[in-house]
Records
---
Amino acid sequence: MPKLYRWLVPAILLNLVIFMHSFMNASISGAESGLVVRLVSDILDYVGIDISLNLLSFIIRKMAHFGFFLLLAILWYKSYEHLNMKPVIYFTLIHGLMIAITDETIQGFTVGRSKELRDVLIDFTGVLVGLLVMYVYETFKKKTTR
């Protein structure tokens, strides 16, 4: 399998996963994140950390936004790199922002969901951190191959 497809296929699949979650109505989305919230809540209770379920749910949902978009940035960065689309960083930034805006726009039309500028900013911050990870990785890789 060419290296491009090792990055491009997961990148496209992650875009689809993000959009599939955008189309989930509030009850389905809530049930999905509720499983994670209960698991994390049990772990926190076990180690003696008390946090309300509402706050924990909010934190987990926003971390999911951030994490998905961090991974999205890495996958698309490598895809654009293998496609020789330069400057890679700009294509990745634009792609990440467009997916974040599209994601929230879809949610605005989904039953029980809303579009939130805050979520676009969280998503885009994930993209920026993903690019920072790639910068550090590329810098480290250059130093070790000398």
Note: DSSP finds five helices and no strands in the chain.
---
Amino acid sequence: MLEILLGSSGAEKVLLFIAAHGAGYAREISRSSGMGPYPILRQLDRPDTGGILASRTVGRTRIYAFNPSYPLLNELKRMLDKALSLSPAAEPEAAGEPPHPAAPAEPPIESTRRMTQDELAAYVRERLRRSGS
């Protein structure tokens, strides 16, 4: 959905993961997205160098999160939150699974909602399926 704006589906997956979880490291994002760790590292390097992400090292692990001083951070987060809210992760029939029983009505999702690991994985699988990868 955002890969045209962000330049690649890898950049989209990385930024959506960080939007959903607040922070992440390459291997964690790799497992969730189905991409290898080295392509993920390349995708993390560009926004880190450009100031969109900030990183810190904890032990041997580099953790990435949004840079709070990035001037367009609020707009970027709103765009990513909108993409997360439109995620096809809630479409079990599309994945060949039986539909879940109807759940009671819930209040509208706030813009601060974050995807679970399973929702993000389902979203990434659907994006890959639609792109023919």
Note: DSSP finds six helices and three strands in the chain.
---
Amino acid sequence: MKNKSKNKKDPQLISYQILRRAVGILGIAFPVVLLIGSIICCGCNEIQTSISSYYHTGMRNIFVGILCAIALFMYTYNGYDYRDAIAGNLACIFALGVAFFPTSINDAVTKCIPFTIDNHIIGKIHYVSAAGLFLIFSYFSIFLFTIKDKEPTKMKLKRNIIYKTCGYIMLGCIVLIGLYSICRYYNKCNCLLDNRIVFWLESVALWAFGISWLIKGNSILKDKKKNN
């Protein structure tokens, strides 16, 4: 007689999978919701210079809300051992830093940006928080998600390749944003100002983050079920 308990999924495992999927969906949807929402609800057809700039638009509440949701999920995520818990707590802190310490904007008020905040201290906290958040996300993908089982399946090995790819994409985007910021500081990147390069780099990083968490949530590239 078969043991029925073996056929039942661990409720804790199911909850973690749902949590990971929710985080992945939020990451992928974040830039899309801000961009489309700004067009539909605020009548703003311009792509902002960065995702963080949407804090100063009519999408501020959505911007803060999504980051707070990600922070909450990260706080409740314990993973497999202390490394997951520490990384999750740090991600929570950084996400809240990005949400409640907005980037500084000293440009003139426009239809898209009805109000501005120009505070260098707050702005620096925001940049440090944003960089820290993406670094933690990269750490999850490259080091934590790729921990191998004693006998990893072929699908697990494939997933590890994608995890690392997503992690390095995030790191690459961080480096490019940093180089672009230095370039702008020395007024050498004027030709790129209209390309909204930071917005797109941040979007690519968030999509890579979202994909890695969706895979970790067992949404795609699942292991094949073994017949009893």
Note: The chain has six helices and no strands.
